[in-house]
Amino acid sequence: NAGVTQTPKFQVLKTGQSMTLQCAQDMNHEYMSWYRQDPGMGLRLIHYSVGAGITDQGEVPNGYNVSRSTTEDFPLRLLSAAPSQTSVYFCASMGGGYGYTFGSGTRLTVV
Amino acid sequence: KNQVEQSPQSLIILEGKNCTLQCNYTVSPFSNLRWYKQDTGRGPVSLTIMTFSENTKSNGRYTATLDADTKQSSLHITASQLSDSASYICVVSNQAGTALIFGKGTTLSVSS
What we know:
heterodimer; A: 111 residues; mainly beta; 7-stranded mixed sheet; 4-stranded antiparallel sheet; globular; B: 112 residues; 5-stranded antiparallel sheet; 11 strands
């Protein structure tokens, strides 16, 4: 039982490049979400999904796309990377009892 | 505006000492409050979750308290260990667990 798995752990992009951050969970959780964590700020919600085929925007969705074709996977796409998207990204899933499980994070640098 | 404020921003204590971290929130309606521990370079890990009706909850050497009337919570760490060095994040939910407001965290350093 791996929990929430994020890949890659580190990534450097050039401005304008696109990429996909992968997130997979094996706990059969319906709810999944993406956060970004910046120095001096709390985690901020980018996008979330309450089940396969259903996604919605969070607090800071601009510049990011998501899709949820399966219960297990919730990839986050950066369409055209900008330096302002340099951050640490966390994927999380939630099951019963309000318990959140976070992945180990992806540290993204956009130059 | 829904907000979660934590204090202090950072704290340094000696190994074996106790400490208390504070969390004040202005989230309404309130569903539950969580404390997370985040080690450097890792994702947050849940320590405690408390609903409106709970006043205290323990997890080993960690004890969280909640006063829903004053909208305050605290996390007490007993007999600190070097491995307690981490960021402690207070998180409040204003719905059935899916809308979370994160505090900025308290960075705790335990030295020998």
